[in-house]
Amino acid sequence: MFKPLDPLLHSELRLAVMSLLIGVEEAEFPYIKEQTGATAGNLSVQLDKLATAGYITVEKTFKGKRPCTLCRITPVGLKAFEEYVETLSQYLNPGAPK
Amino acid sequence: MEEKTNMTAERSLEIIRESIERSQRTIAKNSGLPLMWWGACVMVFALLIEYLWKNHGGPAWHLLWFVMWVVGYIGNRVIDKKKEAVPTTFVGKTIGHVWGTFGIFCGGIGLILGLIGCGVIPVKCVVPDIYVNSLLFMNITSIISLCFGIASTIMGFVLQNRPIQVCGLIAGFGGFFAALHFPMQQMYVMAAVALIGLVIPGLIVHFQSKN
Asked: In the CATH hierarchy, which fold is given to the domain comprising A12-89?
């Protein structure tokens, strides 16, 4: 019996955002937007969902006089991502030992 | 990218792989420029000091190294501002710290030996008789070459890049022994060390991130 995949991460855009954030300390909103190719509105909604679940933190700050939105992955988000990848590997290699 | 939730496991894995690879390429794209810039600075100033020392005076021209730090720092700030904004990564920060530490220690070594040379710090040098007629002379370029090699090799290990590791070893040990054997051509040795230890690794990072 397969473990169900985390529904919050099992979405193209949210998964792409989490994959970007695991490799960096923090990333600005425009960088994530450019890397994922998402629209600003859609990205904001998905970031909110991830932040509400405690997977990421979203900090509104300033870079000089320019407003800046910084996103960081949290330990909860990192654990959820690890579990998601582990479950994925079970789906892809059903015979492999857990 | 939209909010699709009916993905297969293969598609999920593909998204993870693509996102990580694309992000790493973007981050690496501009990280070779500061290495090339600092390497070029060291090369130009080493050759300039060599020329001025030979044709217009003595070793006092070595004070130009402190001008190089200022020029290098200003150029680095300009590069930082012009390159596209990319996130901070652990690897990028580690490389920055390695070269920052190298800069602090080389600046310190230069300052201390300079002050000793000017007599500001009194030091009694004792050379055992067996070394009086030696053909090898320990000098500051040898020590700095080793520091260069250490920093460059660590960078190669952090980036998991074999050619950069080899460049670091050649710059470090090659520069050390070359400066011992050719004490009158120290500045040429320093320029070669900067080329192998900084400029070439910078070019490797730059072109690998483009492919």
From this structure: Arc Repressor Mutant, subunit A (1.10.10)
